[in-house]
Design a protein that fits this description.
This protein is 74% helix and 0% strand. The protein contains two helices and no strands. The protein has helices at 12-22, 27-61. Helix 1 packs antiparallel against helix 2 (27-61). 0% of the residues are buried.
Length: 62
């Protein structure tokens, strides 16, 4: 477990792969991690779309 932002870590996709391939009985945890990854991607996309829509609205209003 990293102790600071500068410690090494691994991507969530690599964590999912490691759980599903190298850990016995790790499939439920891999599925939960995959669901979290999908939720994060959707959230980031919605936030980016909101910023884009706000910027475009302001740009067209002037």
């Amino acid at each position: 477990m990293p102790e600071s932002l500068f410690d090494s870590g691994r991507a969530l996709a690599v964590h999912i792969y490691d759980l599903s391939m190298n850990v016995t009985g790790g499939d439920p945890a891999a599925h939960a991690s995959a669901l979290l990854l999908i939720a994060l991607i959707i959230l980031i996309n919605l936030v980016a779309q909101g910023f884009s829509d706000r910027w475009l609205h302001r740009r067209l209003a002037t």
